[in-house]
Design brief:
CATH topology of the largest domain: FAD/NAD(P)-binding domain
Radius of gyration: 25 Å
Distance between the termini: 101 Å
Helix content: 25-40%
Shape: globular
CATH class of the largest domain: Alpha Beta
Strand content: 15-25%
Keywords: Disulfide bond, FAD, Flavoprotein, NAD, NADP, Nucleotide-binding, Oxidoreductase, Pyruvate, Redox-active center
Largest sheet: 7 strands, mixed
Number of domains: 3
Binding site for NAD(+): 183-190, 272
Number of strands: 21
Family: Belongs to the class-I pyridine nucleotide-disulfide oxidoreductase family.
Organism: Thiohalorhabdus denitrificans
Structural class: alpha/beta
Disulfide bonds: 49-54
Number of helices: 17
Length: 480
């Protein structure tokens, strides 16, 4: 017999999920004086990004880059140093970074904003009532921000062999061994490179024809070359058909669809993520899922139940923390201020934090060509940039896509590419024209000059035409 619930408690806003998007909505609404309940099932705030995603991965990548730079000493006139890898020490550093940032997500901080923080699993009883442990919360408006979880493919033998996902990866403290990474998306390439630089023998298996299939094809090629230069064995068109678990210390055998195989002692599954909706009883709330299992929302982030909103990975369409925060702003305008704000993802940036980084906003050249036809793409190479040469970071390029005098897409592959993207994001949004970038004075020598160089290529094609040369000659003959 189920124990009776406590009396129903009424809130202006109930937020389900204490990750990036949910925390943003709850903190603003609480500080504005609304009665807010924040329900989180895991027992701690911060979500996947803080604990098993963005933050620990970047800390791990930094340790790996330092190890790589030690080996590259001769490139800078220094003696090479072979780093002694202590995975336990690396793990402790990663944990220390997460712990320091966890202070920003202390439950007491949100309680001080007037938010009631409840650690319990949530499920809907009806469109307005949410069960959270032994409590029943009535929300005038409700926000779903439950995030996502690793999507693990149904490969025979995988469960028996055992595998890591990003949820286990950052607690690894064992000495370097051999690792097979299944999946060539952002997480797969980042972690393949990091573990290789930390002394592991790494094989990267990508089922598709190239790494980072959503990115510009030239970007994919540059990244593959960089990974292979680090010693990662990259295999594309490599769909894993079966895993034969190793026994008594033997490596696992990954049998591929083409009849070949790869072997490794450890397996990392990096084949994407799936929205976390299990156990929520969304049917009771009248919330519909789309064909991909994500919560379906309109541009105002409203679900099929108009008083229920969703943000972040649970609704997509992309799985970035910065998108969750952006969507949280849209929800605050709609749910708190009652303004009909709409999400606009035209200029949504994304970054893969490999070395070199791959950053993108807007349309790729191929996407723009398919969509419009009448487009131009112009690029500038870091190898021609003085600061890049001085720093020994010559790999990569910036490629800008132009249509009718506007920048509609940009890809930057190279050092600190993500940091170079904001100017181009503003251009894709329509806030900057190519001439604004060309006429702006960029400090010398900086990596940020790369965008200006690419824009100058666009104008250069127009400026140095025979007709322009004739015009200049005519002017100089007639004008004293």
């Amino acid at each position: 017999m189920t124990a009776p619930h406590s009396p129903e408690e009424r809130f202006d806003l109930v937020v389900i999920g204490g990750g990036s998007g949910g925390l943003s909505v709850a903190s603003v609404a609480g500080r504005l004086g609304l009665r807010v309940a924040l329900v989180e099932a895991s027992g701690e705030l911060g979500g996947e990004c803080l604990h098993t995603g963005c933050v620990p991965s970047k800390a791990l990548l930094r340790s790996a880059r330092v190890a790589s730079l030690m080996r590259r000493g001769p490139d800078f006139g220094l003696l090479a140093q072979a780093p002694e890898i202590d995975m336990g020490a690396v793990r402790r550093r990663v944990g220390a970074v997460v712990e320091r940032l966890q202070a920003h997500d202390d439950p007491e901080r949100f309680r001080a904003y007037g938010v009631e923080v409840i650690f319990a699993a949530a499920r809907f009883l009806d469109p307005h009532r949410v069960e959270a442990g032994d409590r029943v919360l009535h929300g005038r408006r409700i926000v779903l921000a439950t995030g996502s979880a690793p999507a693990v493919p149904n490969i025979p033998g995988l469960e028996a062999a055992g595998y890591w996902t990003n949820e286990d990866l950052f607690s690894v403290a064992e000495a370097p061994g051999s690792l097979a990474v299944i999946g060539g998306g952002p997480v797969g390439v980042e972690m393949a490179q990091a573990f290789r630089r930390l002394g592991w023998a790494v094989t990267l298996l990508q089922a598709g024809a190239r790494l980072l299939p959503a990115e510009d094809s030239e970007a994919s090629a540059v990244l593959r070359a960089a990974l292979e230069a680090d010693g990662v064995a990259v295999r594309t068109g490599a769909r894993v058909r079966e895993v034969v678990p190793g026994h008594a210390g033997e490596r696992h055998a990954l049998r591929l669809a083409d009849g070949t195989e790869a072997r490794a002692a450890r397996l990392l599954v990096a084949t994407g993520r799936q929205p976390t909706t299990a156990g929520l009883d969304l049917e009771a709330a009248g919330v519909r899922l789309d064909d991909h299992g994500a919560v379906a929302v309109d541009r105002r982030q409203r679900t099929s139940a108009r008083h229920i909103f969703a943000v972040g990975d649970v609704c997509g369409p992309y799985q970035y923390s910065h998108l969750a925060n952006y969507q949280a702003g849209v929800v605050i305008q709609n749910a708190v201020f009652r303004l009909p704000a709409r999400a606009d993802l035209t200029a949504l940036p994304r970054v893969t934090y490999s070395d070199p980084e791959v950053a993108h906003v807007g349309l790729t050249a191929a996407e723009a060509e398919r969509q419009f036809g009448d487009v131009e793409a112009h690029r500038a190479d870091f190898a021609d940039l003085d600061r890049a040469l001085a720093e020994g970071e010559e790999t990569g390029f910036a490629k800008l896509v132009f249509r009718r005098g506007r920048i509609i897409g940009a890809t930057v592959v190279g050092p600190h590419a993500g940091e170079l993207l904001p100017q181009l994001t503003q251009a894709v949004r329509g806030r900057l024209k190519p001439k604004d970038i060309a006429s702006a004075v960029h400090a010398y020598p900086t990596l940020a000059e790369i965008a200006k160089r690419a824009v100058e290529k666009y104008y250069g094609e127009r400026l140095f035409q025979p007709g322009v040369k004739r015009l200049v000659g005519w002017i100089n003959r007639l004008v004293p």
